[in-house]
Design brief:
Elements: E1 4-6, E2 23-27, H1 32-40, E3 44-45, E4 53-55, E5 60-63, H2 72-80, E6 84-87, H3 91-100, H4 113-124, E7 128-135, E8 138-148, E9 151-159, H5 164-178, E10 183-187, H6 191-194, E11 199-201, H7 203-213
Parallel strand pairs: 1-2, 9-10
Antiparallel strand pairs: 2-4, 3-4, 5-10, 5-11, 6-7, 7-8, 8-9
Length: 214
Amino acid sequence: MPIYALDNNLWFPPVQEADSEGLLAMGGDLSVDRLLLAYKRGIFPWFEGDTPLWWCPNPRFVLFPNEIVISTSMRSIIKKRNFRFTVNKAFPEVIRACKDLKRKDQEGTWITNALEESFVQLHELGFVHSAEAWQDNKLVGGLYGVKMGKVFFGESMFSTVSNASKFAFISFVEELKKEGIQIIDCQVYTAHLESLGAKMIARESFINLLNQHI
């Protein structure tokens, strides 16, 4: 499969043209309009170096909100109110923490300065949202992502205290249920999200769901 090189025109190739790893295109800008078009079509940016790489893997890792799995230990933590939950109270701090977090087996971060600035703009426009976990009035975990229609596209999460990001995620999913969100895009597999009920579905099924719910 060819890897398409994007220019300044606002377009993406068909997602079926992605290679076996899900890489579809490279280049282009990180404008608000391009990012919104990408998510609407099931495409997301993920960097290596300074060049934007655009992905749409097959299969796709997703969570249906009603299928979330909450372990007995997490139910106990939630019941004990070890953390306080908020939404959109500290978005700049959340994305910066996700950007700065040192991750095992990963060199540097895929959240570039340019991408951070674009997501801040999308947050100000009401498309990007954050969920936060607090302990003793200190931000200790959280996540952010893009919300369009009845779909939430999870982007990144962080935690400085054990179970903080899991608490924020579970609490946020409960909020998204109330808002009628039908599918949460987790993009690529992680054991952490699998333990919470996320699973693989075919890319074609995922795109059909986007067309139905955005």
